[in-house]
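Tip: read the tokens left to right.
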């Protein structure tokens, strides 16, 4: 069983490292995640979970572990693909469950393009911020990633 995530501010994007095979790649990802973002160069607010106990954790295991985290619409995984591929795109995973939806049709609409997509580190903050304030939905970002030739959400 994975530990509870503690100490995250509600405005921090939650990034969980699940691959520990390339420390250099992780340092690149972590450095990119703290860079100012957006057209106004907003300060990056991110909570990094960097503990080998999460090594090899699946999407479902991470989702189960973060269920108790309040105000969390999306969690980002620095997984094997993130560490081995260029660009170093993280896996954005919605925390939405069927129970939170009006009905099956609503749930299907909201996950039409899947419950996960890849995003560049710069996109992490756009996704998190927009979902947090309800400006855009997960399905919109997933659709943009779906339309990208490499399947990656890049930026607004």
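Filled-in amino acids:
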């Amino acid at each position: 069983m994975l530990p509870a995530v503690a100490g995250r501010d509600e405005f921090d994007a939650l990034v969980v490292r699940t691959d520990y095979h390339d420390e250099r790649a992780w340092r690149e990802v972590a450095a990119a995640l703290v860079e100012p973002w957006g057209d106004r160069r907003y300060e990056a607010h991110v909570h990094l979970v960097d503990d080998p106990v999460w090594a090899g954790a699946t999407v479902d295991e991470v989702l189960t572990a973060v269920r108790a985290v309040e105000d969390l619409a999306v969690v980002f995984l620095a997984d094997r693909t993130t560490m081995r591929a260029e660009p170093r795109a993280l896996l954005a995973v919605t925390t939405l469950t069927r129970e939170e939806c009006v009905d099956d049709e609503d749930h299907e609409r909201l996950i039409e393009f899947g419950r996960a997509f890849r995003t560049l580190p710069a996109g992490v903050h756009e996704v998190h911020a927009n979902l947090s304030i309800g400006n855009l939905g997960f399905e919109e970002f997933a659709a943009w990633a779906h339309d990208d030739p490499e399947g990656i959400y890049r930026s607004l």
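The mean pLDDT is 92. The longest strand covers residues 13-17.
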